[in-house]
Each structure stands twice: as C-alpha cells, then as structure tokens.
Design brief:
Residues 12-25 have a biased composition (Polar residues). By secondary structure, the protein is α/β, with parallel strands linked by helices. It has one domain (41-281): Rossmann fold. 34% of the residues lie in helices and 15% in strands. The protein has seven helices and seven strands, in the order E-H-E-H-E-H-E-H-E-H-E-H-H-E. It has helices spanning 54-65, 79-91, 106-120, 144-165, 191-211, 229-235, 260-267; strands at 45-49, 69-74, 96-100, 123-127, 169-178, 217-223, 278-281. The protein has a seven-stranded parallel beta sheet with strand order 3-2-1-4-5-6-7, with helices on both faces. Helix 5 links the parallel strand 5 (169-178) and strand 6 (217-223). Helix 1 packs parallel to helix 2 (79-91), helix 3 (106-120) packs parallel to helix 4 (144-165) and helix 4 (144-165) packs parallel to helix 5 (191-211). The protein is globular, with a radius of gyration of 17 Å. It starts with 44 loop residues before the first strand and ends in a 6-residue tail after the last strand. It binds nicotinamide-adenine-dinucleotide and magnesium ion.
Length: 287
C-alpha cells in the first residue's frame, strides 16, 4: 500500500474536537481494504482506547484480522465512527464491544476495564491510543482548562487504566502506549501536548521495569505526522494542513494504516524480548 501513497496537498478543513474520520477530506486509510492477518494474535483479548478513528481504528482492524477479540473505547460524540469500525471487525468474524466514555473521569477507567474483561473473559493486550492535542501559539492563551484536559487525557488516564487492568493481566501479556515525535522534537505551538508525550515515553520505561517481574511487557509507539481527525480538530495550525507531513524524508504524511503493523508486532510473540522501547513510525522525520 505504502508504495502507492503519494505526497498529498490536503484541503484546509476544521472540525470541532474530537472530530470524525468520516468527515475528513480525504478520508484516512484505516487498512480495512488492505490489511491481511496471519493469525499472529489468535484468540488474544485486547482493549484499545481511541479506537474509533485514526491510529487506534487501524490497530483495531489489524488486531481483529490477526485473530483478536476487541473492546473499543472512544468518546460518545464519536459513535458513528465507532459503529463503522464495529461493522468492519464483525465482518472479520471477531467479537467486538463498544464502550464509549470519557477517560478524564477516573472512575470511568475502572468501569471500562471491568466491563471489557467481563465481555472478553481475560485481557492480553492493553493498547492506549487515546489522546488530545490542541495547538496554541501563545502561552498567554494556554488556559488552565486546556492544561488540565491535555494532561488528564494523555497522562493521568494512562496510570488509571494500567492500574485498573493489571489485576487481569497474566505473564505474557503486554501494554502498548502511544507517544509522539513531539516527545523529542516539540513544536512551539504544542507546549502542553509535547510535554505529555515526553511523559508517556518516560512512563513507559518505568512501567516496563516495574512490570517485568510479572512477565508483562510495556512498549510505546512514536508516530510522526499522521493524517487523522486529531490534526483537523484543533491539533494542527490551519496554515500547516495543506503541506502536513511534507517535511519528512518520505515527503508526505503517514496514513493510520501504516502504524498498525508496529502495534501488532509489539503485542505479538515476535516481540517477546522487547520491553521498555519506543518504536518510531515517522517517515524518517527524526533522522
Ligand atoms: P484521533 O483523533 O483519530 O484519535 C484520538 C482519539 O482519542 C479520539 O478518537 C478519541 O476517541 C480519543 N480521546 C480523546 N480524548 C478522549 C477522552 N477524554 N476520553 C476517551 N477518549 C478520548 O487521532 P490520532 O492521531 O489517531 O491519535 C491517536 C494517538 O496518536 C494520540 O495519542 C495522539 O497523540 C497520537 N499521535 C498522533 C499523531 C498524528 O500525527 N496524528 C502523531 C503522534 C502521536
Ligand atoms: Mg475519533
């Protein structure tokens, strides 16, 4: 698929956060037309946050095609995107349950894991993809509400979900977080967001050390510029949208489908000797 992807000039477009994939032009590639499974996650049970759209949606579709049963979390406003993922996954012959809810609410994180494990029967893979990004060029306009929302969604919920999920996770299971190239190359207009992504990368290492004795691996994925709803619902400055991703060695933005393979790999037995790592998928932007 990647060979067919050309540099794209995206039309300027804006949605209210969190945005819908179905309303984007062009619609991001989620892998539903291209991903072929090879039984690498046969009968695994996975919770995926942010699974309605963008990167999380591609991960969900790929996991189902690799043989996993899935619980998806997303925000209630994203129900239509989530229903589309459910249709694709059910047509792959796997089980999926949709559990909408706000990860900023600590008690919801516990409820999500309880409902998910009741449905799945066990839990092998916890994939934390949900995140928020709102561009703000002036620190004087960076409100306390924005700071709290960004840190609560991206950082606090990571701890709350891992705490809730651990009692259900056995040796051999795995946790995958999502950081960003912003963790190491922060943009001037993403002061709060970039900080959360650096925190996630760092926390992934701490957790890998703490959970290794339990046989649980903890890794992270660091995407570069990927064409998703987050970018067009306040995450990116409007003037950057037409050439979004063109600064990479690939010369273009990535599609969500191009991230799925790395999340499959990190969850699979192929990655049994990998923990505490962050894998870059960024078109060579960091070189
Ligand atoms: P996306 O908008 O498709 O996904 C983000 C998802 O986060 C939303 O679909 C939503 O369901 C979820 N979310 C946000 N706030 C939430 C809350 N309070 N409660 C529950 N769910 C909530 O965009 P995406 O780009 O696929 O983002 C996925 C992850 O990838 C994010 O963590 C983002 O920071 C990271 N990332 C994206 C890029 C990029 O260029 N798109 C680059 C680096 C990292
Ligand atoms: Mg979404």
């Amino acid at each position: 698929m990647a060979d067919e992807l050309k540099k794209e000039y995206f039309p300027k477009q804006s949605q209210v956060e969190p945005g819908l994939q179905s309303q984007m032009t062009p619609i991001p590639e989620d892998g539903s037309a291209s991903y072929t499974g090879h039984g690498r996650l046969e009968n695994s049970k996975a919770i995926i946050t942010g699974g309605d759209s963008g990167i999380g949606r591609s991960v969900a579709i790929a996991y189902a095609r690799e043989g996993a049963d899935i619980v998806l979390n997303y925000l209630p406003e994203e129900e239509s995107d989530a229903q589309e993922v459910k249709r694709v996954i059910e047509s792959s012959g796997r089980k999926i349950k949709l559990i909408p809810g706000d990860l900023k609410d600590e008690s919801f994180n516990q409820k999500l894991v309880e409902e998910a494990t009741a449905f799945l029967g066990s839990l092998d893979i916890l994939v934390l993809v949900a995140g928020r990004q709102q561009a703000q060029t002036e620190i004087s306009k960076l409100t306390t509400d924005q700071l709290i929302d960004t840190y609560t969604t991206n950082v606090f919920s990571l701890i709350w979900l891992v705490k809730a999920a651990l009692p259900y996770m056995n040796p051999g299971s795995s946790i995958i977080t999502t950081n960003s190239i912003q963790a190491s190359q922060p943009s001037s207009f993403l002061v709060d967001y970039a900080g959360t992504k650096a925190a996630i990368k760092n926390m992934t290492v701490s957790l890998s050390k703490q959970l290794a004795p339990k046989g649980i691996r903890v890794n992270s994925v660091a995407p570069g510029p990927i064409w998703t709803p987050l970018q067009v619902s306040g995450g990116q400055l409007q003037e950057n949208i037409p050439n979004f991703g063109s600064e990479t060695l690939a010369g273009r933005a990535g599609q969500p489908a191009e991230l799925a393979g790395v999340y499959v790999f990190l969850a699979s037995k192929d990655a049994s000797y990998i923990t505490g790592e962050s894998l870059n998928v960024n078109g060579g932007e960091d070189n």
